Amino acid sequence: MKTTINTPSKTYDIIIDKLPKLNFDRKVAVITNHKIAGLHINYLTNNLSAKELHIITLPDGEEYKNWQNIEFILDRLFDAKFDRNSLLIAFGGGVVGDMTGFAASIFLRGVDFIQIPTTLLAMVDSSVGGKTGINNKYGKNLIGSFYQPNAVYIDTHFLSTLPKREFAAGMAEIIKMAVMFDKDFFEKIKNNSISLEEMIKRAVELKADVVNQDEKEKGIRSVLNYGHTFGHVIENLTNYKTFLHGEAVAIGMVMANELSKILGYLSENEAEEIKQVLKKNNLPIDFKIENIEEFYNHFFLDKKTSNNKIKFIIPEKIGKYKIIDDIDKNIILKVLKKFEK
Amino acid sequence: MKTTINTPSKTYDIIIDKLPKLNFDRKVAVITNHKIAGLHINYLTNNLSAKELHIITLPDGEEYKNWQNIEFILDRLFDAKFDRNSLLIAFGGGVVGDMTGFAASIFLRGVDFIQIPTTLLAMVDSSVGGKTGINNKYGKNLIGSFYQPNAVYIDTHFLSTLPKREFAAGMAEIIKMAVMFDKDFFEKIKNNSISLEEMIKRAVELKADVVNQDEKEKGIRSVLNYGHTFGHVIENLTNYKTFLHGEAVAIGMVMANELSKILGYLSENEAEEIKQVLKKNNLPIDFKIENIEEFYNHFFLDKKTSNNKIKFIIPEKIGKYKIIDDIDKNIILKVLKKFEK
In this protein, which residues make up the domain named 3-dehydroquinate synthase N-terminal (chains A, B) (predicted)? Predict the structure, then answer.
């Protein structure tokens, strides 16, 4: 199965299948982390040959997604005399993918790179669409670039070792896509009548469709932030320690649904249906807010909050999104009150 | 006078004229250095208004073109709560332009920026075409991006304070463009029958034409490296201390011309003509090589040397370039021998 991404800057395929034999007549660096390397590096290298193959291993964890580790990657490439014709391969989850993409975008002003995601979240979300980045003391993904890979290879083999919570976090993004764009897809997830590969493929197709329309997130791409506007605040308030990203997004979707209900769009039934699908997929659906004013103020720390307008993405109904901005503070507080401790 | 750049990633104008009044209804940061700020900040701010105006001042010099100063710029932007709608203005020479462009390309995955170059070199070369970058311990401009500005404003007012050597260094790039692409332009420079503005405009037009064909330097854009392949080695061997970039390029052009002569293209007369134009414009035309083997080996440190093939750009005749690669080492040594101490 494959899907094509077609942006102004690049056209490339996302291949969902057993990893094919990859042979490169150029220098290749696989960038991964210790954990993934320990579990899966043989599976990869058995399928990979290159003129020269280097493995660059990073520590595992979001806290290492910083400039120091980008410099570490770049220095290894310079040491190995990589040139503009060389290739990087991101082999891991979102952290490895975002960092490899960023390194590829700035090494000698840009070299080719390939994504081989190993987590469900990276497969359906971060590996698709060319967002790269690192964190700094001001926040997450605040430094980075839009830089598309040359190909994405999605092989569900790697999911066999993925912890259950991380699998669920990936499901959150899949459910998000279904609620935003495709009722039929949502029904299939709800009824368990779709295979994992088919589910990944549909999620990727839907994301590709959005990215093809708006590579640089000037408009429609922001729709992918359903659940994220609330979710980012939850992650922030809990210092990114309590919830995985996908878990915070799941709660954020429940909150966005409440907003939609108050505004008269989503029905009580539909909101409940979404909640149950999230729950069935081992995702949290509730969060107790200590202080709703504080929660509200956190919206303005988001890099997507331009000109002090908060943009909310809500389902008008299952399968149809709606973008809301310039919304009255009191209405938001009313939503938050439902989650108050 | 204006010229338009039209690349796959952006279309924008290069305006060669007295700086117009610029009014922005968004946050603006002017990035400059202490020297330029001292000389010209009033001239700029008298023509500039913004919703919020910040001036970020860097130390003056190539040695500050590094990640530490990019981080300094980014931190100031985060402190001032700049968002995706904010604008950066590069106000200075090539160092300021390259750093501002790089910072703009990675701040929140890319914000708008404008170039207001203050040196002749930046006006005709570095501000046009979207190359951004910084140096590191491995070399110059090894980290960076291709990222186009939204506009370039070229006002020769700023050249009134430019040191004579730096003016000459800018002339080297102008003469380079003439020799590569436009015999008539070369004749005008030789005969002193063209105004400074017209000269800048023609050089920018010629560069724009190349960039429009090959934004990411996959092919034809490498033609702009006439004089640079030899020049980079000269800069390297003298630790970037003896010559300004344009001066090294001037010597590099003389060397490339010798190569062209040996290969049977450029006539002795034409080579001499170019030499005299460089000389008349206060540029060096000779360099004594200590060790020609060492000089030769330095070609392979250049980031443009891919797959161990050195690419030389030479004039086939004045006004017509030729790209040469896969050239026998002995021929290059023969050229270098002419410059041996």
Answer: 56-168
